[in-house]
Design goal:
There is one protein chain. By secondary structure, this protein is mainly beta. Helices cover 0% and strands 49% of the residues. The chain is built from no helices and 86 strands. The strands form 19 sheets. Strands 1, 66, 67, 68, 69 and 70 form a six-stranded antiparallel beta sheet that branches. The N terminus is likely disordered.
C-alpha cells in the first residue's frame, strides 16, 4: 500500500484526462452547467471508462418468397447464471408479410430450460407474426447454448444463449452506497445509476429499475446540467436514439450504426461528429476524440484526425494542436496522452505530466478541478492545478474511477482524497462517475462471490462469507457494514465501524493491522484483539501494524503514541526480515528515509522523484530498483511491483518490467518466473494474478493456486513459516 499526504507541486496547469483505456469519438450535446453546485466532485464529463458495447445483431431481412421464414429478434440472448432470460421473440414472415397463426416449436440445448423445466415449447404467432417464448432458465454452470425454432413448411432458425456472471447492483450517491433489488443479476453498470441488463434494456436503479431504452447494443456517456441529463444509445438494429431525463428521443439525421458519444451526440462512420438533438455537424474526419472539458467560460475537446493530425475544439472553433507527438491519444480538453505516458497541452505543446498510465473522470472540486490517475509504477496520484499528490489510503495498482475514488483489486471502492475512506466493498466492476441533477453517482456491479483462502499454496473454500464483503488480509474480510471478520474463526467480528484500513505487519508469530473508524478514531487489531491507538489524532491515515500518519505528516506508533518520523509524504510496504523491521518513506522536503525497527535511517543513492516500494527498496523514475541502505542497484527496467515477502530465508519481490514481462527480484537480482502470462499483476512473493483470473506461483513452475478469483486481498506471512491470502471467488451454482 502506498499513501502520500503531501507532495510538491509538479503540474503547470489543469490536466483534464479521461479513462484508463482512451476512448474514440466522444462528444457532448448537453453540456454540463458550470454554475451547478453539487459539491467537490461535480462532473465535467460523462464517463470514466471505455464504453462497452453489447454485441447484438439482427437477422438479415427476408426476400420476397412464398416460403415462411422464421427469425429471432436477436442473434444472442444473455442471462445471469441461475436467473432467467426473458423476451426471446420469434417472427414468421413470408416476404414482407407477417404470418399469423403459425405454430412454432422452440428447442433449447446446453442445460438451459424453460420455466416448466422442459427443453421444448410450442406456441402460435399473433397478428403481427411474432410470438414471445416463455422465460428461459440459465443453468448454474452457465455456458453457451442454442435456441432453435421450427415450423412445418418454414425455414428453421436459431440464436445463441449465453450466460453472464451473477452480480448485485450497488450504486454510490454522494459517497453513500445503496444496493438496488430492481436491477437484474448480471447487469452492466453504465454511468450514474444506469445499467444495461443482460436482456439489453437500459434501466435506472435510482428510479425503481425503470426501463429507459430497449434492445440496447451500445451506449455513450452521460452529460448533465443542474436540471437535466442525457445519454446516447445505439439499438440492436443500428438506429440511434438518446435518452433525455429518462425519456427516449429520436435523433435528427444521425446515420444508422453511428457510435454513441455523449449527451445526444454520435460519431458517424465517415468521421463526422453529429449532435443528434439538432442534426448539426461540428467537426469532420474524426479518428478519435477525448473528453469534453468545461472550463466555465471556455470549453475544450481534443481530437485526432484520420490524416494523423491533431486538433482541438475551443467552444465550437476547430484549432490545430501544437507539439503533440505522433501516435498520441486525445485525452481531455486540449490535452493529449503520448505513447510514453507524457501529457501534452495541444494549445502550446507544453508537457503537463509524465508517466501517466491510467486516469478516471475529470471532476470539479469547488471552483477548480481534480483528476484521479495512476502512474506507470502503479502508484495512485491526484492531480489538481499546479499540484500532484498521492492518493491517501489507496493500494498500488488500484483503478482510478473519478472524483478521487479508486477501485482496489480487493473490491474496496476507496476515496483517495478523503483519508482513504472505504465507500463500498465487494465491487467487481465500476461504471462511470457521473453527476445527475441532484447528486454525483457511480454504478457498481458486485459479483456473487464466495470466500477462499490460499494458505501455503493450498486454496480452501470458506463457507458463510457475508454478501458483498472484500478480502482484506490473511483470513480477514471487511463486510459492507464495516465489520472486520475472521473467516478462520467462524466469521467472528474483530472490529466494527471500519472506515479505512492499513497494511498488515507481522513477525514470526504476531501480527497487527491499523484501522480508522467511521467516527475518525484510530484502532489497531493485534493478534485478533482490537485496541485503541494511543495519541493518534482523529482522521489519521492507517499505515502498517499499529502505525498511523497524521494529516501534518507525523508517523505515530499507535501502541504507545511514539512519534517516529515527521514530514512524511509517502511510504511503501513494511517488511520483517527475520531480525529487523523495515519500511521506506519519502519526505515532504524531497528526501528519503526508512525505518529500521523504530529508528529513522537516512538512505543512500536514491534519486529525486523515486517511489518507496518496500523494506529499504525504492523505484527510481528510470526503472532502477535501489536498496536505500547501501545505494546498490538491485534491478533495472522495473515498471511496477507487488508486495515483498520471504522465500527460502530471503526476500522476494514480484514485479513487471518496463517491457511488460513478469519477473521477480531477490537481493541477488532478478530471477525468472515461469508460467506467468504477460499482462499479469504482481501480488506478493512469486504470486501473480492473471487477466483470466488465475492466481499463479511463478516461482513454483507456474503452479495455478486458484481460479476465477475476482477479488484478491493482501498477502500475510509469519516470517518464513506460513502465509495466507484471502480471495473472492466467482460463485458457481445457484
Amino acid at each position: 500500500m502506498y499513501v502520500c499526504l503531501r507532495a510538491r507541486p509538479t503540474l503547470r496547469k489543469a490536466l483534464p484526462l479521461d479513462s484508463e483505456t482512451p476512448r474514440t469519438s466522444d462528444t457532448l450535446a448537453l453540456h454540463p452547467d458550470p454554475s451547478s453546485s453539487i459539491g467537490r466532485r461535480t462532473v465535467l464529463i460523462g464517463s470514466a471508462w471505455a464504453v462497452p458495447a453489447i454485441a447484438l445483431t439482427t437477422a438479415s431481412p427476408a426476400f420476397a418468397s412464398s416460403t415462411t421464414a422464421l427469425a429471432f429478434s436477436r442473434s444472442t440472448y444473455r442471462g445471469a447464471t441461475c436467473a432467467t432470460i426473458t423476451g426471446v421473440r420469434i417472427t414468421a414472415m413470408q416476404g414482407a408479410t407477417a404470418q399469423a397463426g403459425i405454430s412454432v416449436t422452440a428447442s433449447l440445448s446446453g442445460g438451459y430450460t424453460f420455466a416448466d423445466g422442459g427443453t421444448t415449447s410450442t406456441g402460435t404467432t399473433g397478428s403481427d407474426g411474432s410470438m414471445t417464448l416463455a422465460d428461459i432458465k440459465v443453468p448454474a454452470l452457465g455456458g453457451t447454448a442454442t435456441v432453435s425454432a421450427t415450423s412445418s413448411g418454414a425455414t428453421t432458425t436459431s440464436a445463441s444463449l449465453r450466460s453472464v456472471e451473477p452480480s448485485a447492483a450497488v450504486y454510490v450517491q454522494n459517497g453513500t452506497s445503496s444496493t438496488s433489488s430492481d436491477v437484474p443479476s448480471g447487469s452492466t453498470p453504465v454511468g450514474g445509476s444506469l445499467y444495461v441488463t443482460p436482456n439489453a434494456d437500459l434501466i435506472d436503479a435510482a428510479d425503481g429499475g425503470k426501463v429507459l431504452s430497449a434492445d440496447v447494443a451500445a451506449w455513450g456517456e452521460i452529460a448533465a446540467t443542474s436540471s437535466a441529463w442525457s445519454i446516447p444509445v445505439r439499438k440492436a438494429d443500428g438506429s440511434c436514439v438518446w435518452v433525455f431525463n429518462g425519456t427516449e428521443r429520436a435523433t435528427v439525421d444521425v446515420p444508422n450504426g453511428s457510435t454513441p458519444s455523449i449527451g445526444s451526440s454520435f460519431i458517424t462512420a465517415d468521421g463526422r461528429e453529429m449532435v443528434g438533438a439538432q442534426g448539426t455537424v461540428r467537426i469532420t474526419d474524426v479518428k478519435a476524440r477525448g473528453t469534453y472539458y468545461n472550463g466555465g467560460s471556455t470549453s475544450l475537446t481534443a481530437f485526432s484526425k484520420q490524416d494523423g493530425t491533431f486538433v482541438y475544439l475551443e467552444d465550437n472553433t476547430v484549432k490545430s494542436a501544437v507539439g503533440v507527438p505522433s501516435g498520441s491519444t486525445p485525452a481531455c480538453g486540449s490535452f493529449f496522452l503520448s505513447p510514453d505516458g507524457t501529457l501534452v497541452d495541444g494549445v502550446d505543446g507544453s508537457v503537463i505530466a509524465s508517466r501517466i498510465a491510467a486516469f478516471g473522470l475529470l471532476t470539479r472540486e469547488n471552483a477548480s478541478w481534480l483528476l484521479t490517475a495512476r502512474e506507470t509504477s502503479g502508484r495512485p496520484v491526484i492531480l489538481r492545478p499546479g499540484l500532484q499528490t498521492l492518493a491517501t489510503g489507496v493500494p498500488w495498482g488500484s483503478r482510478p474511477v473519478g472524483g478521487g475514488i479508486y477501485l482496489a483489486r480487493d473490491g474496496r471502492l476507496i476515496d483517495g482524497v478523503n483519508a482513504g475512506r472505504t465507500v463500498a466493498t465487494g465491487v467487481g466492476t465500476p461504471g462511470a462517475f457521473a453527476v445527475m441533477p441532484d447528486s454525483w453517482r457511480i454504478p457498481l456491479a458486485a459479483p456473487t462471490a464466495s470466500a477462499a483462502v490460499v494458505t501455503d499454496g493450498i486454496s480452501q473454500a470458506v463457507a458463510g462469507v457475508p454478501a458483498g464483503s472484500s478480502p482484506v488480509t490473511g483470513k480477514l474480510y471487511l463486510t459492507p457494514s464495516g465489520a472486520l471478520v475472521d473467516s478462520a474463526n467462524g466469521w467472528s467480528t474483530l472490529a466494527t465501524g471500519i472506515a479505512a484500513i492499513g497494511q498488515i505487519a507481522a513477525n514470526r508469530q504476531d501480527w497487527a493491522i491499523p484501522a480508522r473508524k467511521t467516527d475518525g478514531s484510530a484502532v489497531y487489531i493485534y493478534n485478533g484483539q482490537e485496541s485503541n491507538a494511543v495519541g493518534v489524532p482523529a482522521g489519521s491515515i492507517p499505515v502498517a501494524g499499529s502505525s498511523f500518519v497524521t494529516t501534518d505528516g507525523r508517523e505515530l506508533r499507535g501502541s504507545d503514541g511514539v512519534v517516529r518520523m515527521t514530514g512524511v509524504a509517502a511510504y511503501g510496504d513494511a517488511y520483517f526480515d527475520g531480525t529487523d523491521y523495515f519500511q521506506p518513506f519519502a519526505k515532504a522536503d524531497g528526501s528519503f528515509t526508512f525505518l529500521k525497527n523504530s529508528d529513522e535511517t537516512s538512505t543512500t543513492g536514491i534519486p529525486a522523484g523515486s517511489t518507496p516500494v518496500a523494506a529499504r527498496l525504492y523505484l527510481a523514475p528510470d526503472g532502477r530498483l535501489i536498496d536505500g541502505g547501501s545505494g546498490s542497484v538491485i534491478a533495472t527496467q522495473i515498471a511496477t511491483a507487488g508486495r515483498i515477502a520471504t522465500r527460502n530465508g530471503g526476500w522476494v519481490l514480484p514485479a513487471v518490467r518496463t517491457d511488460g514481462a513478469p519477473t521477480a527480484v531477490t537481493p541477488s537480482g532478478e530471477v525468472t518466473v515461469s508460467g506467468v502470462p504477460t499482462g499479469s499483476t504482481p501480488v506478493a512473493a512469486g504470486l501473480f494474478h492473471t487477466t483470466d483470473r488465475r492466481l499463479i506461483d511463478g516461482l513454483n513452475g507456474g503452479a495455478v493456486l486458484a481460479t476465477n478469483d475476482v477479488l484478491v486481498g493482501m498477502y500475510r506471512e509469519l516470517y518464513d513459516s506460513t502465509w495466507s491470502l484471502p480471495l473472492g471467488i466467482a460463485s458457481a451454482g445457484c
